[in-house]
Amino acid sequence: MTGANGFSVSGYGPQRPVWARLFARDSLARRLDWPILLAAIALSLIGAALVYSATRNRTELNQGDPYYFLVRHLLNSGIGFALMIGTVWLGHRTLRTAVPILYGISVFLILLVLTPLGATINGSHAWIKLPGGFSLQPSEFVKITIILGMAMLLAARVDAGDKPYPDHRTVLQSLGLATVPILIVLLMPDLGSVMVMVIIVLGILLASGASNRWVFGLMGTGAVGAITVWQLGILDEYQINRFAAFANPELDPAGVGYNTNQARIAIGSGGLFGTGLGKGSQTTGQFVPEQQTDFVFTVAGEELGFLGAGLILLLLGVVLWRACRIARETTELYGTIVAAGIIAWFAFQSFENVGMTLGIMPVAGLPLPFVSYGGSSMFAVWVAVGLLQSIRVQRPMSA
């Protein structure tokens, strides 16, 4: 005989075993999206193996410790996982009320990059140096605040039942909110992050139900803006050279085109099954620059082959598929917009990262989500996973 709380009246403890109560229909564990969680964990672990292979012989980087980057990558993943748990615990609806504070902090941090506290790493002046040899890339967290901020504005009156879809004034306000940090990041200049943010904004507008005229107008404005940036010389020379090398792969193969040429050689040499982890000649010979960060996919292509690289793409596809399902099943526009912004972010950044290693996209200095080495990126993508899990956990049980 049991009481209302599920414990036996006779005092012998729970009627159901612990595992059964943990995965009961109304439990948190049961309501989590496990495919997303397991796929993200698998990507982080695969990334750890690739980062180790790419850096174990780089004595000029690893301070003589072959496990230096491996340990830090696993530590970053662990911290990111903890941030995901914290995000689920707080909930996306609670974070909705904190958007003004989060937005102010993120804008303040990217402004710090433009001060003497900012640092240049790999040609991009987008970092803040911290004590202990750590660094912070604030633009990674700006992606999250843009998503939350635009979702808060666009969904406010719709979720309240006042409007069937966002009106023009609301759309204009949300675009103004996103424009401020995007312009600051452009001044760094961090063109790769700007590209991702623009795609996020487009994805959010499409999901919000706003008039398609805003989407087409934004695309036209983006094209005009790109031409203006080019003509005004805002971009650094190395960024212009990257686009030139993309347009003409044979341009300066030993200079500006070196990265992409070596990346294609590394991926092409892997074949179907790869050369084996730690046995790739391009990786061990250190012919591909920045293999632990921007070009980590080349390690997978060479050492794990087509099957291993395909597994990474499959796992990223699982994350995107489940995120699309979460966006579709939530009953509030706010949750739909947040999920859509994350989908646009992950999809474009993954496509750009893999595409630049294959020569079908220009080099833009963007990490591969969950896989590339980098604390700021790892923390941001895990917070995004936490937002997706929160949207799923807090949906009605009948959904």
TrEMBL record:
Keywords: Cell shape, Membrane, Transmembrane, Transmembrane helix. It catalyses: [GlcNAc-(1->4)-Mur2Ac(oyl-L-Ala-gamma-D-Glu-L-Lys-D-Ala-D-Ala)](n)-di-trans,octa-cis-undecaprenyl diphosphate + beta-D-GlcNAc-(1->4)-Mur2Ac(oyl-L-Ala-gamma-D-Glu-L-Lys-D-Ala-D-Ala)-di-trans,octa-cis-undecaprenyl diphosphate = [GlcNAc-(1->4)-Mur2Ac(oyl-L-Ala-gamma-D-Glu-L-Lys-D-Ala-D-Ala)](n+1)-di-trans,octa-cis-undecaprenyl diphosphate + di-trans,octa-cis-undecaprenyl diphosphate + H(+). The chain crosses the membrane at residues 34-55, 67-89, 101-121, 141-158, 178-207, 214-233, 304-321, 333-351, 371-388. GO terms for cellular component: cell division site; plasma membrane. It is found in: Membrane. It is an enzyme of class 2 (transferase). GO terms for biological process: cell division; regulation of cell shape. Pathway: Cell wall biogenesis; peptidoglycan biosynthesis. InterPro entries: Cell_cycle_FtsW-rel_CS, FtsW/RodA, RodA/MrdB. Its main location: membrane. It is a multi-pass membrane protein. Its EC number is 2.4.99.28. GO terms for molecular function: lipid-linked peptidoglycan transporter activity; peptidoglycan glycosyltransferase activity. PANTHER family: CELL CYCLE PROTEIN. This is peptidoglycan glycosyltransferase. The gene is rodA.
